[in-house]
Write a structure and sequence with these properties.
alpha/beta
């Protein structure tokens, strides 16, 4: 088989309940497209039966399926980057393995790509997530539009299509914290969105709990915006101005009325407030400094333990 036209990259982390159904629905959809394709499953350190199931899929279609195995869990976006390194198609489609994305919607993305777009993102309609996640997503999308140049409809949807040129630009970026949809949007010449369906999770558990979503927001804005730093810079000017005004007021009051013990409690309250603002500012700076440190060390973003490929059988690699 020659170079495929389409590559589908799917990160997998403990998804044994949905993998069998995903495999059959995806294979049927791609078989009906009428052009060559490949499927790349990236096992992101699964602890359940997912790894064995992926090996079985590979044995069934060794010329169309490849499996990349990490030595441990590195996260969804690192798994996608590893898949991009091995993908050979002119168009690369990504999707989740939990079947909340419909494999049957892939032709929608390809039809839009045929119109000349280099990135097509899925925009989930009638989302089936829990209310608190919908609320959290709405806040995040609002902040993203306000404080970054990334204005896409649905950043959290992983059902997306990319041209080969955009994939190559992303692979040329070597930062350790990567957010694929936002990074691709910032590197694309002509991105767009298309409506796709969204299903409720029928098996397994979401890998994003509340804490991880909060961390995701911190990481995202530290990677794509200086707004947090600018916010505390403004806070610094405001607090300094108020402090000068308070100092003048206290001095005038002392000269006119003499010292008052009651004012000490007000000063303590103001002092504690300023200390809180200072610690928050240091925390924000620490987020940026931590990313600088991680990038300067240039440690491997992930380690690939094995690649199942009919051409090479298996390979041990460091990336």
């Amino acid at each position: 088989m020659g170079t495929p036209y389409l590559s589908v990259v799917i990160p997998v982390f403990n998804e044994q309940e949905s993998l069998e159904t995903l495999y059959h629905r995806l294979a049927e959809t791609l078989d009906n497209l009428g052009f060559s394709f490949e499927i790349l499953f990236v096992d992101d350190g699964s602890k359940d039966n997912s790894k064995k199931m992926l090996v079985d899929f590979y044995k069934q279609r060794p010329h169309q399926i490849r499996v990349i195995e990490f030595n441990r869990n590195y996260g969804q976006h690192m798994a996608l980057m590893a898949g991009f390194e091995y993908a050979q198609g002119e168009i690369i489609v990504t999707m989740d393995a939990d079947l909340q994305n419909y494999p049957e919607d892939i032709p929608r993305l390809l039809d839009k790509m045929a119109e000349g777009y280099d990135v097509v993102g899925g925009s989930r309609q009638n989302r089936q997530d829990k209310l608190w996640r919908l609320w959290f997503s709405r806040i995040h999308n609002g902040l993203r539009r306000r404080f970054t140049q990334i204005d896409m409809e649905d950043e959290g949807c992983m059902l997306r299509a990319y041209s080969r040129s955009v994939i190559q630009r992303m692979l040329a970026c070597h930062e350790t914290s990567t957010f694929i949809p936002a990074l691709a949007f910032s590197l694309a010449n002509n991105p767009t969105d298309v409506a796709v369906r969204h299903a409720s999770r029928e098996a397994g558990q979401s890998k994003y709990n509340f804490y991880k979503l909060v961390r995701y927001n911190f990481d995202f804005f530290a990677n794509f915006s200086r707004a947090p730093l600018e916010f505390f810079t403004i806070c610094g000017f405001v607090v300094a101005t108020l402090s000068i005004g308070l100092f003048v007021y206290i001095m005038v009051h002392r000269l006119l009325y003499g010292p008052e013990l009651e004012g000490a409690f007000t000063l303590f309250a103001i002092l504690y407030f300023l200390i809180g603002v200072l610690l928050m500012g240091l925390g924000i700076i620490g987020e940026y400094v931590g990313r600088i440190q991680a990038d300067v060390r240039k440690r491997p973003r992930y380690i690939i333990r094995r690649v199942l490929d009919h051409k090479i059988q298996e390979e041990v690699s460091y990336s």
